[in-house]
Amino acid sequence: MLNLMNNPLKVALMSISPHNRAILEFFFAGAGKKIFTPVEAAQAEALIIDFDHPGGKQEWQAQHADDFKPAIVISVKETMEDKVVWVPKPLTSKALTAAAQTIREMAPVAVVAPVSAAEQAAAPSQLAETQAAPAPMLPDNTPELRPFGLSGQQRFKAAPPVAPQPKCIEALVQASESAPEPEPSELEAPEQHFLRTEDVFIPPPLEAAEELSSADGARFSAAEVVDDPIKQEQRWDSLCGREQPISRTHWHESEALYSPENYLLNSLVDALQLSHQSKQYVQLEINGAQARGHVLLMPDVNLAYSSAALLSDEFAAWCVSPLKTGTVQLHLPSTTELAVLEETVRRDAENTYDMEALIWTTSLLTSRGRLSRNADLTQPLRLRHWPNLPRLEAFPHVMQIAAAWQQRAGTVFDVAEWFDIPQRYVIAFYNAAHTLSLLTVEQAPVSPAAAEPAAPRKNRGLFSRLLKRLLGGGAK
Amino acid sequence: MTTSNKKIIFTGPVGAGKTTAIDAISDIKTIKTDEHASDMTKSRKPQTTVAMDYGLINLGDDERVHLYGTPGQERFDFMWDILTKGGIGLILLLDNTRKDPFRDMKFYTNAFRDFIEQEQMVLGVTRMDLQRRPGLNDYRNWLDELSIQAPIFEVDARSRKDVTALVQALLYSLDPGVTA
Fold first, then answer.
1. What is the 3-state secondary structure (H, E, C) of A260-288?
2. Where are the beta strands (DSSP E) in A154-258?
3. Contact assignment for A132 to B60 by CB distance below 8 Å
């Protein structure tokens, strides 16, 4: 039996429906990482084509049927063609693994070039590049836009292409890499490895599906929070705090300061950076006396799984309590571990979230309207990009703050004063947007006039009435 | 007494959800000009808008906001200039399952460039639940490449809440001092 584990099959994805493409990407980045390596068509040993997708069969017949490359054809109906291995829908990891094996057996072993470690590491990115040029959420290539970080130590400013990993991470990575590779048969898990469409994108809308626990332990839904003004106020307090306004001149003496290095948030940002750099899934294991659980970051699909629901008291406790050193460990799961995690994520799909939503909420719960001890509030900032607000937890004035900060550079204090917004909401936005690297220091000098409140613009009255009409419901 | 009429324009490629989005927030039953698709469109949906969609938000007896959806096919682009007259902003919907959403973004932002410069645009990316790539960060980078500053959200065109968020972002971008 040929060993696919040390020599993944180089495949190119041709015409494939979006659903099945997503399923394959999910599989290639996870349990199938050591079995398939996605590449461009010219480098591929085999092609993967969806015969049910409009134009798929025609593309195969017109362009590839004669170029001696075997193909894995996915379709509902069986296909009997030369050099073709049929994989029936719905796709399973078992069938895909078997197809790879069959393709290998078709081709002479000598012509199969081994895949280097570098190629393997680059595989997910190659796959991504066939569709778009993805940008990392935090460690992107615009260092000048990142003159401060969570710890205020310019952590991303001079980041090399692959930043040195913290020692604990490095040890775990080495441990993971040095672990004996499982035999292919271990991966050929039977039918329970069904990769269904719903496994690929499963984050439920926060307001519809989440549950959280109230102080007395009763569980209620996020929709109830929105409907119940008291519960909504409580949630906003958890996210934005109830701190008194901080003085513009003496903010560094305020009691409302915290050290982000002591919290889960810091580890989460490290994990995010690691997952983007390594293009691999990263797991955070939380093993504290009180807090226990894990978070899995899936960079290829920009999703995150948390063993505690994002709106639960348990998750809030993870964020709010300072953690002792060593409580949180980062881990690159092996192929075998990924298969288990995949199963966990599938079983507990409700706890899978958009990555940005997880980081946004973690940042808010951690800071609770307080400022990082390392922040520099003297520099005028500007919003580079809006957060994905419909998918994030909202709090008062969040849209107004985003709009104001994208149009004018200013400090936290400026934004609060321009529109008479309670400072804690501006600080909350600052903390979360900063963690997501959406803010940048304004390089151009800010004129004194820019610090003045903005003059009313045309149609303000109409806009206010339209907003009230849309937000208040009405006749629709 | 004069009647105040303002427009919000919804645009984007075929199947991005323009008609559905207008339907989600309109006070009236959306007036549609759908016909059976006879071209490449039919691979994405059986019927498509050939003239425009029209919805309305009533703010009072003498004040209303009209919602116009452009036809998605590029051959109808001669209508777009007419539709934008008197508009307060543009909502561009992009379908994440299409072959090249960046090309779509470039095409529509170029087609409406003058209007965007004079007014404001917001972007909604639909069908991200069906296809996760490209991600929102890709769209943000593409906007940077085109030197456009605009809010961009993942949305479900069927959701009133999501479409409302797009309109909210449009209004706050036009005037951050507006209050609800």
1. HHHCHHHHHHHHHHHHHHHCCCEEEEEEC
2. 211-213, 219-221, 257-258
3. no
- Tell me the shortest Cα–Cα distance from B12 to chain A, in angstroms: 19
The residue ranges of chain A whose pLDDT is under 70 are 1-6, 18-19, 63-67, 90, 107-227, 446-456, 473-476
For residue A70, what are the CA distances in angstroms to A34, A100, B5? 20, 10, 61
Q: Which of B128, B135, B174 shows the shortest C-beta gap to A134? A: B135
A9-129 has which CATH code? 3.40.50.2300
Cα distances from A162 to residues A156, A158, A325, A394, A437, in angstroms, run 11, 11, 24, 34, 18
Query: Which of A302, A406, A470 lies at the smallest CB-CB distance from B25?
Result: A470
* A75 DSSP β-pair partners: A88
Q: Tell if the CB–CB gap between A389 and B129 is shorter than 8 Å.
A: no
Write out the DSSP string of A285-319. Answer: EEE-SS-EEEEEEETTTTEEEESS-TTSHHHHHHH
Please check the confidence at residue B86 and state whether its pLDDT lies above 70: yes
* Gap between the Cα atoms of A16 and A436, Å rounded: 33
Cα A274 to the center of its chain, rounded Å: 12
Cα dihedral A48, B142, A145, A410, rounded to 10, equals -140
Token couple for A30: 């996870």
pLDDT number for residue B87 = 93
Do A386 and B153 lie within an 8 Å CB cutoff?
yes
pLDDT band at B44 (very low <50, low <70, confident <90, very high): low
Q: C-alpha A112: how far from its chain's center?
A: 35
* Contact check, Cβ <8 Å, B154/A457: no
Are the beta carbons of B138 and A419 separated by less than 8 Å?
no
Which residue in the block uniquely carries the two structure tokens 């029936």?
A88
| Domains of chain B, CATH where assigned | 4-174 (3.40.50.300)
B104 band by pLDDT with thresholds 50, 70 and 90: very high
| Rounded average pLDDT over B120-148 | 95
State if pTM tops 0.80: no
Residue B17 CB neighbours (<10 A): 25
Predicted ipTM of the assembly: 0.90
The burial class, CB within 10 Å (0-12 / 13-18 / 19+), for A339 is buried
pLDDT at residue B40 is higher than 60:
no
A188-to-A47, A73, A194, A238 alpha-carbon distances in Å: 21, 20, 11, 45
Contacts of B130 in chain A (CB under 8 A): 18-19, 22, 201
Q: Provide the residue ranges of all domains of chain A, joining segments of one domain with +.
A: 9-129, 375-471
Chain A with chain B: Cβ pairs closer than 8 A: 158
- Average pLDDT for B24-31: 92
Mutate to test the interface with B, among A138, A399, A417 (most CBs of B within 10 A): A399
- The more confident residue out of B60 and A381 is A381
Reported as type and span, the H/E element at residue B34 is strand B34-36
**Residue whose structure tokens are 């590029």:** B74
CA distance A457 to chain B (A): 6
Neighboring chain A residues of B173 at a CB cutoff of 8 Å: 403, 406-407
Interface probe for A, chosen from B7, B29, B137 (most Cβ of A below 10 Å), is B137
